[in-house]
Write a structure and sequence with these properties.
The complex is a heterodimer.
Chain A lengths: L1 H12 L1 H33 L7 E5 L3 H8 L10 E2 H8 L4 E7 L4 E2 L2 E6 L2 H5 L1 E2 L3 E2 L2 E4 L7 E4 L1 H7 L6 E2 L18 E7 L10 E4 H7 L3 E2 L2 E2 L7 H5 L7 E2 L1 E6 L5 H9 L6 E4 L1 H54 L4 H42 L10 H32 L6
Chain B lengths: L6 E8 L9 E8 L4 E5 L6 H9 L6 E6 L2 E2 L5 H11 E4 L11 H11 L1 H11 L2 H11 L4 H5 L8 H13 L5 E5 L7 H18 L2 E6 L10 E4 H4 L1 H7 L1
Parallel strand pairs in B: 3-8, 3-9, 6-7, 7-8
Antiparallel strand pairs in B: 1-2, 1-4, 4-5
The chains are: A alpha+beta, B alpha/beta.
The complex binds adenosine-5'-triphosphate and magnesium ion (MG).
């Protein structure tokens, strides 16, 4: 329409300021959508850290704590589950499979997880995906190790390399089991879960490196070589936790009760999905704060647009008076300004979406592996559509005041061109 | 056929605010069809206010303003805007042009708001642009050279002539000029007024030209001082 083309030319004349407004809206949209996207994907990939595991069993502690060390390999397990108790539940009628886990050691900051080959068979993540080897094979011998994708990538390991396990966790672990090195037999494909950051060894190997240790320290004067250890009985006396798969999910609460009421030892069983949800709720405060901050940034951008428009109005007062003299109606003046804000916010939102897509296309894979999750930007979630709609709605609201002002000015100025 | 007078003002009084004294109290003012009237008056006497009343941007509190036989108080707000677009041409004191439109588009602007004027321009000259070029030429603007320049690079005199062409495009029945010469030097004032009155004569438009510069009045069909018809000013002067 005629008025629209006039509006466009007027805006084009002020394209420098307009571009700044569009860019500031776009940046706030990128921030808003980025936070929302990360939040959304963090939640899903978090909820997908383990799947297909019905129960996680460990020594009695807080549920979140048990989850943290068994699934996320964070923190120090306080006490163990005895091998006998583990076997009791492994042979429970309703239990289909179990995966034992022993934790506590590390390799150059990455947690060492001692387990058996059932781990590779039963562990599931995401949409019930199983672990796959990118290279080599599962461990077989006592001193074999299978590395998570990120461990291998960051430390530059490949199959056949020799690694030394340190006692204790974290970068600070200083006592090294350097008398009994492990050899890399396989490297897993990336999963976007804590598996990527784990060094997997056999339970026997884990037992072997500790045979000449008591109470967390080497026994003075006692030194058992790797060869000697290999010939010993390496059945562990205890493990840290175990994952349980049931014959039928219906049994989950029954088995959980059996574990919690177990007489010989204080044990507890958690439903990993449920506890993941609880853990997420704990983190949700930060998540909401992040969203609130990005909403504030958006408000700042819209207010900046409003003030740019209001300042512009003084210069454009003459423009409005001319248009009025030529027969423009007051509502057309109103529509002119409101249309301008609409255009600016829509352009800002579009640019924001495009930049967001570009960022994800360019850096999504890198960011995803850095954060340990998969990031995709398309299609936008319904919430993101709502956020975009809110941005445009906010733009219109921010435009109401300048548009009303312009309209009132035009009515009041009449035929006099004021400066 | 006798045409209705371009403008009739009857017993009009206007005050800006309810509590204020009236600015205008005019018993009678008439501008005939095609008549070119010079209306003088000192600064602050209400000339611009009167033009706003005529243009239908303001409506009188009392009395009647009829433009081409139409009472502005009978027309609705949008109706007045529409009427203004179709039948009135306006020239301001200065800053008449939209700086972001090329010269030709500025001249053609009224035809964006009025089909009537667009049709008239097309009937007379084939197209709106052709009429714009013709009017610019008549007003002494060597069209091609001026057209190429941005509006902001024109001299004030050139800008006022572009504004005159804009007021005249599509042959409106009445042209309102609010001190269009006050920013020009003496020689150019006379030139501008001569061109404007001549072109109004050619298109048959009536011209209501307000100014405090009586020296210009000679070029018009009739000369009137606002003080002669405005009772407010008479009282103030008495
Ligand atoms: N928008 C307005 N609101 C209130 N009062 C106004 C407004 N515009 C003009 N006036 C008052 O109306 C009176 C007449 O003003 P007007 O602008 O019509 O004078 P003028 O004859 O055009 O003067 P000049 O030659 O300086 O342009 C003045 O006293 C002025 O203060
Ligand atoms: Mg004035």
């Amino acid at each position: 329409m005629n008025l629209a083309s006039l509006a466009w030319r007027s805006l084009w004349n002020r394209r420098g300021t307009a571009a700044l407004v569009v860019v500031s809206i776009a940046l706030s949209v990128v921030l808003l959508l980025g936070v929302e996207r990360l939040r959304d994907q963090a939640r899903t990939s978090f909820a997908n850290t383990v799947s297909g595991v019905d129960l996680v069993v460990g020594a009695r502690t807080g549920p979140v704590n048990l989850l943290l060390y068994s699934v996320f390999r964070l923190g120090e397990p306080t006490s163990n589950v005895s091998w006998e108790s583990y076997r009791t539940f492994a042979e429970h009628d309703r239990v289909k499979w179990t995966v034992p886990l022993s934790l506590g050691d590390s390799h150059r900051g990455f947690p060492v997880v001692a387990t058996n080959r059932d781990y590779f068979e039963h562990y599931r993540y995401g949409d019930r995906r199983s672990l796959k080897l990118a290279e080599g094979e599962e461990f077989d011998g006592v001193f074999d190790a299978v590395l998570g994708a990120r461990v291998a990538r960051e430390l530059g390991y490949s199959v056949g390399d020799r690694i030394i396990v340190a006692h204790g966790g974290g970068e600070m672990a200083h006592t090294r089991h350097d008398d009994k090195p492990f050899f890399v037999t396989g490297i897993l494909e990336p999963t976007g879960t804590p598996v990527d950051q784990s060094v997997h060894v056999s339970l026997e190997g884990f037992e072997a490196i500790h045979v000449d240790w008591r109470g967390g320290a080497p026994v003075p004067g006692l030194s058992i070589s790797a060869e000697q250890a290999r010939r010993m009985d390496l059945t562990p006396s205890g493990i840290t936790a175990f994952l349980v798969g049931l014959e039928s999910r219906v049994a989950v609460f029954g088995v959980q009760r059996d574990v919690n009421n177990f007489q010989d030892e204080a044990l507890m069983a958690i439903l990993p999905r449920l506890t993941l949800q609880q853990l997420w709720d704990l983190l949700a405060v930060g998540e909401r704060a992040l969203l609130a901050v990005s909403l504030l940034v958006l408000v700042v951008a819209l207010v900046a647009m409003m003030s740019a428009l209001l300042t512009g109005l003084n210069e454009r007062r003459r423009e409005m008076a001319i248009l009025r003299a030529l027969g423009a109606r007051p509502w057309q003046i109103f529509a002119l300004i409101l249309g301008e804000t609409l255009l600016l916010t829509v352009l800002g939102a579009l640019l924001g979406v495009v930049v967001m897509q570009a960022v994800v296309a360019a850096a999504g894979a890198w960011l995803g592996s850095a954060l340990g999750m998969t990031i995709s930007a398309w299609p936008p979630s319904p919430r993101e559509w709502w956020l975009l709609a809110a941005v445009i709605g906010g733009g219109l609201v921010a435009g109401l005041w300048p548009a009303t002002r312009a309209c009132l000015n035009a009515l009041q100025d009449g035929m006099t061109v004021r400066l | 056929m006798t045409r209705a007078p371009a403008l009739e003002v009857d017993r009009v009084s206007f005050r800006w605010r309810r509590k204020d004294a009236p600015v205008l109290e005019i018993e009678r003012l008439e501008v005939g069809a095609g008549e070119r009237l010079f209306l003088g008056g000192p600064s602050g006497s209400g000339k611009s206010t009167l033009l706003s009343l005529v243009a239908g941007v303001l409506v009188p509190g009392d009395g009647r303003v009829r433009v081409l036989g139409h009472d502005t108080r009978v027309l609705s707000g949008p109706g007045r805007d529409r009427f203004r677009a179709d039948h009135l041409g306006v020239i301001f004191q200065m800053f008449n042009l939209l700086p972001w439109l090329p010269v030709l588009d500025n001249v053609m602007l009224p035809c964006r708001f009025s089909h009537t004027r667009r049709n008239r321009a097309e009937q007379r000259d084939g197209s709106v642009a052709a009429q714009a070029r013709r009017l610019l030429g008549r007003l002494g603007l060597d069209a091609e050279r001026v057209l190429a320049r941005p509006v902001t690079e024109l001299s004030v005199g050139q800008q006022q002539r572009v504004a005159a062409a804009r007021a005249l495009i599509g042959a409106p029945e009445l042209v309102l000029a609010d001190e269009p010469t006050s920013a020009l030097d003496a020689d150019r004032r006379a030139d501008f007024v001569a061109l404007l009155t001549e072109q109004c004569g050619e298109t048959g438009a009536a011209l209501l030209f307000v100014s405090h510069d009586r020296a210009l009045a000679a070029a018009f069909d009739r000369h009137l001082e606002l003080g002669e018809i405005n009772r407010v000013a008479q009282e103030a002067g008495a």
